[in-house]
Amino acid sequence: MIFHDYYAEIADGDVERFVAAQDLGRLVTVGDDGPHIGLYPFAYGPDRIEIHLVRTDEQIVDLRARPRCVFEVDEVLGVIPSYWVDPENAIMATAYHRTVIFDCRAEVFEDVAALAEQQGRLLGRYQPEGGFRPVTAADPMYKGALNYLAAVRLTVGRTRVKFKLAQNRTPEARRRIIAELRKRGRPADARAAAALESTLGAGDASAL
Q1: Model confidence band, residue 134 (pLDDT cutoffs 50, 70, 90)
Q2: In 10 A of CB 4, how many CB atoms?
Q3: 72 with 26: CB under 8 angstroms?
Q4: What is the DSSP string of 163-201?
Q5: Would the CA dihedral through 132, 133, 134, 138 be positive or negative?
Q6: Residues facing residue 159 across a β-bridge
Q7: Are residues 104 and 146 in the same domain?
Q8: Position 47 confidence tier, pLDDT thresholds 50, 70, 90
Q9: 109-141: b or e for each residue (b if 16 or more CB lie within 10 Å)?
Q10: How many helices and strands, by DSSP H and E, does the chain display?
Q11: 144 and 204 housed in the same domain
C-alpha cells in the first residue's frame, strides 16, 4: 500500500478517535507455512493493543516464534464509478477507506490472573454497562475458559495511516462526488459522503 502524504497526514487525535471507534481489528502473523490473519475485538491505548486468542490458535504459535506482527484497523467506505470524476477516463474509478496499520511486537501470556485483568479491560470497552459477574481467576464460572485462552499484548513500534478520502481531488470535484454519493444512497454512502466532507475547509463545505 502506498502512503501518499495527502492521505497519510492525519492528526494523531483523529487517528486515535478513529481506531477507538472500530469494533474489530486484523492481526497478521507469519508462520512456517506463510502468513495468517485473524479478526478480533481489541483494547487500545496510544502505544499498546490487547487481544486474546485460544492458546492452540496458529497465530499464537506464530507469535511465540516470530513476535513481530501487524495489527490493522479499517473502515471500508465504498467505491465510485469513474464518470463521477471524468466522463471518459476509466482510471478515475476508485475506492474510499480509512486504514491504520500498526507494526507491533507481541508478548503472549497464559497467566490466568493476567487474563482475567485483560478480560476486564475488554469488557470495559465493549460492555461498559455491566450485566456480568466480574471476571476473576478464582471464579469457577470463568476458570475453565481462562485456562483455554492466551492474552496477547502488542507494543506498537510504528503507525502507518491512510485515509483515502479524495484529498487528491479539487474541492469542486469532491463536492460533486459527495453529491453523487448522497444521491446513490447505498448503505455506506452517507458515511462516505461525511468522510469526504470532513476534508473540505469551512468555506468549501458551505457550498454543499
Answers
A1: very high
A2: 11
A3: yes
A4: EESSTTS-HHHHHHHHHHHHHH--TTHHHHHHHHHTTS-
A5: negative
A6: 102
A7: yes
A8: confident
A9: beebeebbbbbeebbeeeeeeeeeeebbbeeee
A10: 8, 7
A11: no
Q: Are 146 and 116 in contact (CB under 8 A)?
A: yes
Q: At 25, which helix (H) or strand (E)?
A: strand 25-31
CATH, residue 95:
2.30.110.10
**Residue 205: pLDDT over 70:** no
Residue 120 shares a structural domain with residue 142: yes
Split at pLDDT 50, 70, 90, the class of 204 is: low
Tell me: do 48 and 81 sit in the same domain.
yes
- Total structural domains in the chain? 2
State the pLDDT at residue 45. 83
Give the range of the structural domain holding residue 178, as residue numbers without chain letter.
Answer: 169-208
CB 165 within 8 A of CB 135: no
At 146, list the grid cell.
481462562
